[in-house]
Amino acid sequence: MNTALAGHTIVVTRPAAQAEALGRAIEAHGGRVVYFPVLEIQPLPDQSAVVACAGRLDEFDLVFFVSPNAVEYGLAALTASTRWPPTLKVAAVGQGSARALAAHGFTDVIAPQSGFDTEAVLALPEFSAAQIQGRAVLILRGDGGRELLGDTLLARGARVEYLGCYHRACPATPAQALLAPCERGDIDALSLTSSEGCDNLLSIVGPAAMERLAALPVFVPHPRIAARCHAHGFTHVHVTASGDEALVHALITYFGYTPDMNTSVPPSASDSSSPTPPEVATVIEPAANVAAEVAAETSTEATTSGVAGEPRTASAPTPAPASPPSPAAGWASGWALLLALIALAAVGVALWQGYAVRQESVALRAELAQRLKQGDAIATAARTLAQQQQTVLGEVQGKLDTLEAKVDATEGQAAALETLYQQFSRSEEDRAIVEVEQAVTIAAQQLQLAGNVEAALIALQGAQARLALQDRGQLGALRRALASDIEHLRQQFTLDIPATALQLEQLLGQADALPLAFAEELAPTPRAPGEPSGGGVANFARDMARDVWRDILSLVRIERMDSALEPVLLAPGESRYLRENLKIRLLSARLALLARDGRTYATDLAQARNWIERFFNTRDPVVRRVIDDMLVLEKLPVRIEHRELALSFNALKLFQARAGEVAAPRGEANELPNDAANTLPPEPAHESPHAGAAQPEPAPQP
Question: Quick check: 514 and 616 in contact, CB under 8 A?
């Protein structure tokens, strides 16, 4: 058994469930252990948040465990009802949490190899801004805790969500369990593993007992915990590495090289031959304590040097029998005594000042610790209040959005009601004028856009009938203008567009049945007038020979192809393309008819008729009738310039001006005629899109 810690008692302040491992390690080296838990880990009474988060694990990219307690309580709760996603990565602060995760089957854990705190984790390349930006991170921790990790990840672009999975509380540990052995002098060292545990220690033992504990050496695993220990009055704080082995090694090193081991060394050799302990722990002592020790060492050295500098004869002088003592020796002894008294007074004043400064420092540290604790509580309450305020603000914003939507709907309804009010507040005459104006506008649109004279006449006649119900003299000029425009439209030529389109459709259907010119068969040669006919073998033989000769002659056909008036000989494939091109021309002519494009309409029909006269059998009655129909259709005036309804519009404007009403603009469709220009420019002539793009020329003549 190793006895490096034999005769030394160490206080372990970890939670009861986690203190046994450290206690066994200390006892294995011969030390005694006093278990004094200052922190208690409890599961959360309400696990609803953990259960709800377990169903959303696939939404996160990384889960962060801040301590082994987070692994013990959080991982069990998350995996109780669902399986861990295989792509979800895990990270930990230190190797203790990493080992706890490894015990649950996690082999790829992101954790620092040194440092073992939030700063070391944030320094890893996996948590740089380029790697963590846009990723969802779940942090499992106890209630409260530092916000450095989450705030830094948020600043680097990550989406952070906290999940509390356990509760840290101050246990009801009796203070006498620690104070009784401390008063007997049985306590040699104290270990603290968290800042909150340091605060709880002060709460359990009280400020008065804390002053007695302040002289004990304290071993902590992090400088932040050491700073909290100094704030509570501890004067000997040792910062060790993380883990139980590092803490035990620091204890062995500390107790193995205490000053008691060197008391037998002579003062003359103490400065040169005293062993130096290996630097395994960093000792952090306050400046006031160091100053007090320096003052004590200075006063001790002054006293020692004053006594040693006197000669032996000065302390026990032997007067000469022949002469009295020298006066100079008496004066020297008096000055030495005076200097010794002054030195003792200076040492006393220094010790008193050091004691006063130490007492003030202890009081200030206790007050500072109390205020820090209060500040943490206030900050936690402020964060909770801020979260509540954000929730309330979100609800208020939602209500404001709903109110804005309702206000917009109310404004729309008010506008509709205003329109209805204006409509119903008009007089009968005003409504009649508005209806007449709409009818005249519709008639003008039908004439300009569609060329539909019949629809324009119907609209104008409806307006005239509406005015007939108003027996007022002011409307006489408007009625005369409407009558003039109606009479003019009745006298204009009206093209029957549907009938013409139907004729083109019929011609299109006959295109496949028209016979080609080169497919015409020659008429049989008639019998000569004097040629005998009758029975007999001789006549039969002659008739058969003549029929055979005629069949031979029909195998050869000679025609003139050098004349443009003669039909063109086409291959079967070319004849199919010819019929398709003829259909395209007829379709293009029909589209030009509907678009009122007279030039394209006439050009397509003329080209189609030219192909029929050139390539088809013009002696066939069907072909001849098709050509005649095309000639008639070509002469139809598709583009007819109608006179604009200037008289009606001018009469409406004159009536509105006399009534004191300025007509509001009604859009481009209603701004038809005016005094300066009452007609629209004629539509420019252009080729139909079907006429130029899909009209391959027929096959060339052989």
Answer: yes
